[in-house]
Design brief:
single chain, alpha+beta, 2 domains, 11-stranded antiparallel sheet, 7-stranded antiparallel sheet, 22 strands, binds arginine, binds glutamic acid
Length: 716
């Protein structure tokens, strides 16, 4: 007994974990979280984090591109995010001659900063709760899908009114599964330039092997800069633009982290589903995850081999491979974690308690909720599987996915009467995008994907869902998939940029036969037809049904537990998570520290494995221990873990200390905690942050880009 107590005490002392569960809305921090946050160590007020009338931390947080977060770290619009968030920008500026992926990129002067067409950075100007307004306008008893349509219509009008006469945009988003509504007013900058990126041997160190894992040694950061017009407002790219003067920028702290320290993460988490029923969890565990993992394992086997064959393919497939591999690995960790947590059983007993409550409280409207879920998911599962195989396997072949993008052009040509101007514009649009597509496309690799994915589809998907055209063509090629692939890629006009140019230059509807008869186009169309003819109707209906049940179940759970603080699921809107710096026990008998150092980089170094190569210059700095003010105790900190609740989209988010100073950049979660999108385990869910001192060290000592250090406000 005594021994047991000692162990318990030891665990409590070594990991004083603040349960970091929750992704909170900045506008409610004052009301819901401030006291709790301060009791856990926060020294600033909720107003310092979010305020509409005064500058606050929210003014230094941006939605970076489509799906990452970035933070402003200087008065000149310098933006810090992850290397993997800037990866496709770094890749698109790279070539075999100027290999920024391999060698890194540093702008030693403002003139060298590189324009990134299409890249945006979006600030949140204000957030408003419009739930009451919205609900008041919704007809009583209206149900999905009509309810969704009505909301869309009402939202459009409110959004328009909210930004009338400004350069802002607005968006109203549903929260708590469509029970509440919030308006976001945003300011989007369109001239965002690349400023610095370490080589992949720092920024992607450990690669896919270490991805989603702790202990971690990835220097996962990249720097950009927001440019604005003369009036400091968003402007299209122009040489005349100047660095944006932000309303707030984060001071950077080199004081470091100690276990137990308060931390918060401010960013744009993408999607979580914390309140779903057991039937949804088992669908993920038994249908979606296994199918997607299996398909991607095979795609990655082919792509990885191609990338190892030489620099050209390595660069062409780098960004695509990283995206495919990232979710592939996460699903595996998620499935493992859900099983270990017994999430299905826990949810089932919650559902029983819920049903008992509903019966006792006489809530007849909830009597069939759980059984409705069961029957809906039973019908949903086979459709989901085929849908996943169409998306992941069939459209995992790039030629097939690319050919599908010609559908609009084909439809315009088949319209009666034909709008020749629209045809011409659409052909021009496709032609403009062709260069980018074929730049990263390798016919040999894609043929292998075709052979493998088509066989997998035929083997794993019910015969009633096999496209007739696929079967016909296979027979024509004497059941030889390789021969089939060779004829398909040779005959199709869509398999290389020269043929595409030939097809599309001066395109009018009179030339449409060529497209409509193209074998890749027909094949893509026949897979799409499986979806449209055999899946869509029921799939959409069932999705709508699930959404309706989710809305009702969410409201019911809130009704059942009026004192419980429910946080809304992530939906790519601005949130604050808070927790503390803390190691964890990943498994019986194993304890992980809260931080890593450069020693671990050198331990992992392996010149024979690309993922674990260490740049020569870093080795030299290590030898001389030339860490400057960034080192501590004779070594250099690299990353740390804390108990903040984060998800995809939080990548690049500022990690702040009790004073609201920047101590790191969020970039990942730990393997044992990847199920936190569905089930958060305070014992094992940790977010991984890059220690800002390693970032500064790489900029300053490794790259010698001291002009960037000088524009930051560094606090010691
Ligand atoms: N797992 C991290 C995230 O979800 C990092 C991904 C990038 N790294 C990689 N090896 N693919 O985005
Ligand atoms: N790497 C993820 C991202 O791109 C963050 C890790 C996570 O999913 O928590 O957002």
């Amino acid at each position: 007994m005594k021994k047991y107590l000692l162990i318990v005490l030891f665990v409590i002392i070594s990991f004083p974990v603040i349960s970091g569960e929750g992704m909170w809305l900045p506008i409610f921090l004052k009301q819901l979280n401030e006291a709790d946050m301060q009791s856990k160590g926060m020294k600033v007020s909720a107003d310092a984090i979010y305020s509409v009338n005064n500058s606050s931390m929210k003014d230094a947080v941006v939605l970076f591109g489509g799906g990452c977060t970035g933070e402003i770290i200087s008065e000149q619009g310098l933006l810090l995010t992850n290397h993997h968030c800037g990866f496709s920008q770094i890749q698109s500026h790279s070539s075999v001659e100027k290999d920024y992926l391999k060698n890194g990129f540093w702008a030693y002067s403002a003139e060298e900063e590189l324009a990134c067409p299409g890249l945006t950075a979006t600030f949140i100007i204000r957030i408003e709760d419009v739930t009451q307004k919205m609900l008041a306008l919704l007809p009583a008893g209206i149900m999905e899908p009509e309810r969704d349509l009505k909301i869309k219509e009402l939202a459009a009008a409110m959004e328009k009114a909210a930004v009338e006469g400004t350069h802002y945009t607005a968006s109203i988003r549903p929260f708590y599964n469509g029970n509440q509504f919030y308006l976001f007013v945003m300011e989007t900058f369109k001239d965002v330039r690349m400023v610095g990126a370490p080589p992949s041997s720092i920024g992607k160190f450990g690669g896919d092997t270490d991805n989603w894992m702790w202990p971690r040694h990835t220097g996962d950061f990249a720097l950009f800069r927001i440019y604005a017009g003369a009036d400091n407002k968003p402007a299209e790219y122009s040489k005349e633009n100047k660095p944006f003067k932000p309303r707030h920028s984060f001071p950077v702290s080199v004081k470091g982290v100690q276990p137990g320290d308060f931390t918060m993460v401010y960013g744009f988490p993408g999607r979580t589903t914390q309140y779903i029923p057991s039937a949804a969890v088992s669908t993920t565990l038994e249908v979606a995850n296994p199918a997607r993992i299996k398909i991607r394992t095979e795609r990655l086997r082919i792509i990885d081999a191609a990338m190892r064959s030489g620099d050209k393919l390595r660069i062409q497939y780098a960004a695509k491979q990283a995206t495919i591999a990232n979710a592939w690995k996460k699903w595996q960790g998620e499935s493992k974690g859900l099983k270990r947590m017994n999430t299905i059983a826990t949810k089932k007993s919650e559902e029983e308690a819920f049903q008992k409550w509903a019966a006792d409280a006489g809530k007849a409207e909830y009597a069939n909720l759980i059984s409705d879920y069961e029957t809906t998911y039973a019908q949903y599962r086979p459709l989901l599987k085929t849908n996943d195989y169409i998306n992941e396997a069939a459209f995992g072949v790039e030629l097939i996915r690319y050919a599908r993008a010609y559908n609009k052009l084909a439809m315009l040509c088949e319209a009666n009467p034909v709008d020749e101007k629209a045809v011409k514009d659409e052909a021009a649009r496709i032609l403009a995008g062709a260069k980018g597509f074929f730049r990263d496309f390798d016919e040999g690799t894609d043929k292998q994907l075709f052979v493998s994915m088509m066989q997998m589809y035929m083997n794993d998907v019910d015969a009633s869902m096999h496209p007739a055209y696929l079967k016909e063509q296979l027979a024509k090629n004497k059941n030889n998939w390789i021969a089939f692939a060779n004829t398909l890629y040779a005959k199709s006009m869509l398999s290389d940029s020269i043929k595409v140019r030939t097809l599309l230059s001066g395109f009018t509807s009179s030339k449409s036969k060529k497209l409509l008869k193209d074998p890749a186009f027909i094949l893509a169309k026949s897979f799409a037809a499986i979806y449209l003819d055999k899946i869509e109707t029921d799939f959409v209906k069932l999705n709508t049904k699930i959404n309706t049940l989710n809305r009702i179940y969410m409201a019911a759970q809130m009704e059942m537990k009026p004192a419980h603080m429910f946080y809304p699921d992530a939906n790519s809107t601005l949130r604050v998570a808070y927790g503390n710096v803390s190691g964890y026990e990943p498994a019986d008998g194993v304890t992980y520290d809260h931080f890593t150092t450069i020693e671990g980089i050198m331990e992992k170094e392996d010149a024979s494995i690309e993922e674990f190569e260490v740049p020569q210059r870093l080795k030299e700095l290590y030898k001389t221990k030339d860490y400057g003010v960034y080192g501590v105790n004779g070594t250099l900190p690299v990353a740390f873990v804390a108990s903040n609740h984060t998800t995809g989209g939080n990548s690049g988010s500022p990690v702040l200390n009790a004073n609201g100073e920047l101590i790191g950049t969020n970039f990942d979660r730990v393997w044992e905690g990847t199920m936190s999108d569905i089930d958060f385990d305070p014992e094992r869910c940790r977010n991984i942050s890059l220690d800002i001192r390693y970032t500064l060290f790489v900029i300053d000592k490794y790259a010698g880009c001291s002009r960037l250090i000088q524009e930051m406000k560094i606090v010691n």
